UniProtKB/TrEMBL annotation:
Belongs to the bacterial diacylglycerol kinase family. Pfam families: DAGK_prokar (PF01219). The chain crosses the membrane at residues 50-69, 90-111. This is Diacylglycerol kinase family protein. The lineage of its organism: Bacteria, Bacillati, Bacillota, Bacilli, Bacillales. Its main location: membrane. Signal peptide: none annotated. It is a multi-pass membrane protein.
């Protein structure tokens, strides 16, 4: 079982690196704290909390994957290559799509509570 538990250690190191070194991860975490604070103030239902938790977890996981892709591309080549740029742009695009969808869902949840 030792290698199994060691994999958790490596995963936690990756998460720690993402939080400490990535500007966008910091932004997402601040936004998540704002959403959680808003959820506490507005009294979200259990289903709304589940939705928010999935969105926050998905956003953080996707940002970590984006960072991993960027690091891998940077490791493979120092030169400009159109495919390397596409890989980075596609990964960033995936984060943006999820962020927009998350914002829309947050509006669907929160706007009726504010009105």
């Amino acid at each position: 079982m030792h290698p199994f538990f060691k994999s958790f250690h490596y995963a936690l190191k990756g998460i720690q690196h993402g939080f400490s070194a990535e500007r966008n991860m910091k932004f997402h975490c601040i936004a998540a704290l704002g959403v959680i604070f808003g959820g506490v103030l507005t009294g979200l239902s259990k289903l709304e909390w589940l939705t928010i938790i999935i969105l926050i977890g998905g956003m953080i996981a996707l940002e970590l994957m984006n960072t991993a892709i960027e690091r891998t591309v940077d490791l493979v080549t120092d030169d400009f290559h159109p495919l390397a740029k596409q890989a980075k742009d596609l990964a960033s695009g995936a984060v943006l799509v999820f962020a927009i969808c998350s914002a829309i869902i947050a509006m669907i949840i929160f706007i009726p509570k504010w009105l």
